[in-house]
Amino acid sequence: MTTVHKRPGAATDHHARVLAPLGLAVAVSIGGPAAAQETAPTTILPTVEAVGTTPLTSTGLPRDRIAGNPRTFSAADLSRDGAPNLVDNLVRLSGSMSLNDTQGNPFAPDLQYRGFTASPLVGTPQGIAVYQNGVRINEAFGDTVNWDLIPSIAIRGADLLGSSPLFGLNATGGALNLRMKTGFDAQGGRVDVSGGSFGRVGVAAEYGKQVGNVAAYLAIESLNEDGWRRYSPSRARRLYGDVGFQGERATLNLSIGAGSTALGGNGPTPVQLLSANRRDVFTYPDRTYNRMTMLQARGTYEIAANWSLETNAYVRTFRQRTLNADIAEFERCDDDDLAGLFCFEDGPPLTARGGGTVGADLLGDGVPGVVNRTGTNTTGAGGTAQIVSTEPILGRPARVVFGVSYDHADTDFSGSTELGLVTPDRTVAGTGVFLDSPAGGIADVRLKTTNAYWGLYGSGTIDLTPRLAATIGARFNDAQIRLRDQLGTALNGDHSYSRFNPTAGLTWRALDSLTAYASYAEANRAPTPAELSCADPLLPCTLGAFFLADPKLKQVVSRTWETGLRGTLPAAWLGGRASWNLGLFRTDLSDDILLVQSEIQGRGYFQNAGDTRRQGIEAGLAWRNERLALSLDYAMIDATFRTAQRLPSPNHPDADANGTIPVERGDRLPGIPRHRIRFDAEWRATEAWRIGGNVVFNSDQYLRGDEANLLKPIAGYAVVNLRTAVTLMPGIELYGLVRNLFDQPFSSFGTLYNLQTAQALNLGLTDPRTVTPGLPRAFYGGLRFTF
Q: What is the DSSP track for 254-271?
C-alpha cells in the first residue's frame, strides 16, 4: 500500500492538506521536486515519494510508477473532524467510498469501495482485504472486518489500492492497509476528551518516546454511547502498543493490539413504524460482544546494497458472542391432531432440545419469539516474508519483489435458539426452553473449522524510459478449508481452492504535472467457512448467525481493468494550487456469491449467482491557498448482474409461487448507490481558528431482496456536516462538529421482511420494506491536549 516519506525540509503543516480528497490525495506529489522547492506561499505540501504495492510497506515505488490511483490518509486526516475516526473519515475524504448502515450501529458499519464491501456482519459477501501493519485482519470464519476493534488514534496512515492479486485472498475489489504508529514517528503525547449527543463520552490517549535506537509507543481508547435509537447502547475499549529497535542495517518491532466492545445494533425497522418515530426498532435486543488480542513481530534487514528482507509474524485471538431477538417463524398448529402445539407453516411440530414437542401453553396467549445466540472462538497465526531488490535491470531502474505468506486459523462455532415471548414493547423474553427442529431450519450447531491459506507472489517494475514504466506481477493462492460437525455429520466437508492471478500495468509521465496509467489485475475469493456452512436452500441458516448444511460453493474470480489521468494545474492557478484526477475502472466477477432469503423469517443461504460487474468513473478537483481549501469528488459506480436468473426472495410482493423473482442482465445490485458527490471546504479565519464543512450526496439504491429492481428504491439523500477548531493556547485545541445539520431523514440500507409473520404483532403492517434509519442531527465536541 502507500508509504509516505517526506523529503528533508518539506513543509509539515497538516492543516494545509486536510481537505485533499481521497481520490486526489496522490496528486499533491505530482509536481515533483521543483514544486517542493518553490518559495511562493501557495506551495505548502510535502512530497509523497513511495507507494507500497504489497502488504509489507517498508519499501515502495515512486507514485508516478503506480498503474492506478492509490489514496493516502494521514493521522491528521483521520482526526480532522474531532476525535480520531477511521471509517467516517475514509468516507468523508473519498468519492468512491460509502457506508451501508446495515446494523444501525455507528461503530459497526459496512464500508463500501467501488461497490465492494468490508463488513463486520457475517452474511455480507466481502470484497476488500484489510491489513494492519501487513497482517490481514479479515476474520477467518466469515472474512468479516470488525472496525470497532481498531484503535483509530494509533493509526499513522491508511492506504487504499484497487484490486491487486498481491494482497492475496479477498482483494477482488481492493485492499486497505493500516500503518500503525511507533515511538520513532509519533513522539510526545496527546489526550483527546470528547462527548456529545446521545450520551457519547470518549477518551483517547497516546504517548511515544525514543531513546537512542529504541522507541516505545502506547495508545488507549475508551468510548461509550447510549445510541440515538431505542435500546442501542455501545461501549468500546481499545489498546495498541509498540516497542521498536533501529540499527544500521536492521529494524525490529514488537507490537500488541487488544480490544473489547459491546455493541447494540437493532438493524432495519419497517418503514411504517419509522414514519411515526425514526428512533423506533422492530424487535430487540440485538447485541454483539467482541474481544480481540493480537501479538506481532515485524522487521527488516539490509542483506546487501539494493537488497533487503522484510518479514512479519503474528498470533491473533478473536472471541465473539451475539444475541438476537426476533419474531418466531412458527405458530399454533392448525391440525386437530397437533392441537396445543407449535408448528411450522405447512410443516412438522416444533421440537425442543433433547426431543419432545413444544406446548403452546408455555406462552399463554402471547406472541412466540426466539432468542438466537452464537459463539465464535478463533485462534490464528501466520506470517509473511519478502525479498526486495532495487538492482537495475539492463541498466534501467527497477524494483523486484518476491514473497511468501501463510495464514492458519482454527475456529469453534456454536449456535442455539431459545423459545421466547414477544412483549408489548417488542422485546423477547426467554423461557429457558431451547429448540432443536432441523426440519424447520432450527437446530443447535457445534462446528470446528480450520483455514490454511498459502500465498506465493512476485512483482517487478522497470523504467523502460525516464517517463515510461512497466509492471508485471502474479500471485498463487491456495486455500484449504476443513469443517467438522461436532453434533453430527451434516456440516462435515473438506474444500480446496487455488488460483494463479496475474497483473500488469503501464504508467507514462506525459508531463512533469501529468501522469497517465492503465492496468489489468485478477484476484480470487475463496468461500469462507460461514458461507460453505450455509449453502443449502432446504436447510437455511439464521442470517448472520449459524449454519446447517455444507454444499460446495465455487470460488469468486475478479478481472479488473483500470485507466486514468492525474496531475496538477499550473502553479498559483487562481491564486492557489490545484490538483485533479480522472479515472475509469471495470471489475467483472465470475460466480459471485450472494446471501439470499429463505421462506423462513430471518433465515437465508449463500449461493453462486453467476456473473456480476462493477464499473464506473472517479473524478476530483482540489484547490487551496494559505487560507482556503476546496475539494470536489464525484464517483459513478454502475453495479449490475450480468447473468439472467431467478433468485429466491420469498418476502418480495412480486415473488412467484416458488418464492423467486426474475433477475435480468443489467439489473442493478442492491445496496450500492450509483452516484456519489462530495464537496468539502475549510477556511482558516485566523492562525488559531479554522472552520469547515462538507456536503455528501448519495443517489438511490435498491433494497436487498429486490435484485430484480421491481420496487421503489431507497431514496437518495444529501447530508451537510460542519466542523470547527480553535487553538486556545499552545498544546490545547477545542473542536466541535455538527452531523446532519438540517436533520435530514435518510437511510443507507434496506431489505424485505415477512409480512405474514409480522401480523402476529397486530401492528397493521402492510409494507414489506424495512430500512435502517440514518443518524439525525447530532452535536459533538472535545478538547485535545498535546505535549
A: EEEEEEEEEEE----EEH
**Is this model's pTM higher than 0.85 or not?**
yes
Percent of the chain scored above 70 by pLDDT?
A: 90
| Residues of the domain holding 431 | 2-780
- Give me the CATH number covering residue 394: 2.40.170.20
Model confidence at 543: pLDDT above 60 = no
C-alpha radius of gyration, the chain, whole number: 26
Interstrand relation of 174-180 and 128-132 (parallel, antiparallel or unpaired): parallel
SS3 362: helix
Which residue bears the cell 421503489?
712
Residue 502 to residues 383, 457, 476, 538, 622, Cα–Cα distance (Å): 22, 10, 9, 38, 34
Q: Residue 597 domain-assigned?
A: yes
**Cα(224)–Cα(210) distance, rounded to whole angstroms?**
32
Contact 92, 696 (CB under 8 A): yes
- pLDDT, the chain, mean: 88
What is the dihedral sign for C-alpha 136, 550, 488, 545? positive
Number of domains into which the chain is organized = 1
| Cα torsion angle, 196, 197, 203, 206, sign | negative
- Provide the β-strand partners of residue 148: none
> What DSSP letter does each residue of 30-70 carry, written as one string?
TTHHHHHT--STT---PPP-EE-SSS--SS-EEGGG-SS--
Residue 89 is predicted with a pLDDT of: 87
CB 373 within 8 A of CB 321: yes
CB–CB of 707/654 below 8 Å? no
The predicted pLDDT at position 602 comes to 53
318: β partners: 292, 378
Q: Give the number of other CB atoms < 10 A from CB of residue 275.
A: 11
Average pLDDT over residues 357-380: 93
Rounded Cα distance between 387 and 323, Å, is 46
Contact 141, 123 (CB under 8 A): no
Residue 48, C-alpha cell as written in the block: 509523497
Band (pLDDT 50/70/90 cuts) for residue 345 is confident
| Residue 419 located in a structural domain | yes
Q: Where are the beta strands (DSSP E) in 305-397?
A: 307-327, 330-332, 342-344, 367-389
pLDDT at res. 59: 64
Question: Does any domain span residue 786?
Answer: no
Rounded to an integer, what distance in angstroms lies between the CA atom of residue 621 and that of residue 624?
A: 10
The CA distance from 278 to 775, in Å, is: 10
How far is it, in rounded angstroms, from Cα 256 to Cα 244? 12
| Residue carrying C-alpha cell 456519489 | 676
Residues 6+ away with beta carbon under 8 Å from 277: none
Q: Residue 637 above 90 pLDDT?
A: yes
Cα–Cα distance measured from residue 239 to residue 258, given in angstroms and rounded to the nearest whole number? 5
E strand or H helix that includes residue 596: strand 593-597
Q: Which of 407, 413, 345 lies closest to 378, judged by CA?
A: 413
SS3 content of the chain, % helix, strand, coil (to 5): 10, 55, 35
Exposure on the CB side of residue 28, measured as CA atoms within 13 A: 31
Per the domain annotation, does 785 fall within a domain? no
Dist. CA 119–CA 102, nearest whole Å = 9
pLDDT above 60 (res 574): yes
User: Could you give the 3-state DSSP secondary structure of residue 76?
Assistant: helix
The closest alpha carbon to 196, from 233, 239, 226, belongs to 226
Sign of CA dihedral 647, 649, 653, 659: positive
**3 state SS of 126:** coil
d(CA 319, CA 288): 11
